[in-house]
Specification:
alpha+beta, 2 domains, 5 helices, elongated
């Protein structure tokens, strides 16, 4: 588990503009990014390299439309557990990381211990996921909420 504490990197306006351009389309050319931010290629490339080295940016990826590949159902899964030992947590986290259906997993404060975002083809596929998860690790209560409509989805952070 990665925990980042107080590691904010100082960014100026040019850095933020570069990040906005990359968040919009990381596949665009360096020339296009430089044009958008009002700079030349070399300073933009140097800024990008420094931000990567500082851990501001992770790997470049492609965002795939889930429905076009048959993953029509999005479930938010609320998990409560009565287990809080390190061994249980390691087993649970390993089970989540091994399941490609889990797009996001968060440990929460409050009555619910974890929330998962699970993307599958349909309710039957969710049940297969659910049965596999509870066979691997004991949980106290699981509530699955089917998203009826995705209103907003973005990976871009406000800069």
């Amino acid at each position: 588990m990665t925990v980042k504490l107080g590691r904010a990197v100082q960014l100026d306006d040019l850095d933020r503009n570069i990040l906005r351009a990359l968040q919009a389309d990381a596949g665009q050319s360096l020339d296009e990014i430089a044009r958008q931010v009002g700079s030349s290629k070399t300073p933009v490339w140097n800024r990008i390299r420094k931000m990567r080295d500082a851990g501001v940016m992770g790997p470049s990826t492609v965002v795939v439309d889930p429905e076009t590949i048959g993953l029509d159902a999005c479930f938010f899964v609320l998990i409560r557990t009565s287990e809080h030992e390190a061994e249980w947590q390691q087993l649970f986290l390993a089970a989540l990381r091994a399941r490609p259906e889990v797009q996001e997993a968060h440990r929460l404060a409050g009555e619910i211990d974890y929330i998962l975002k699970v993307r599958v083809a349909n309710a039957r596929a969710y049940d297969v996921f659910y049965q596999a998860l509870i066979s691997e690790v004991r949980v106290f209560n699981v509530t699955a909420l089917l998203s009826m409509e995705e209103i907003k989805s973005s990976t871009a952070l406000p800069l």
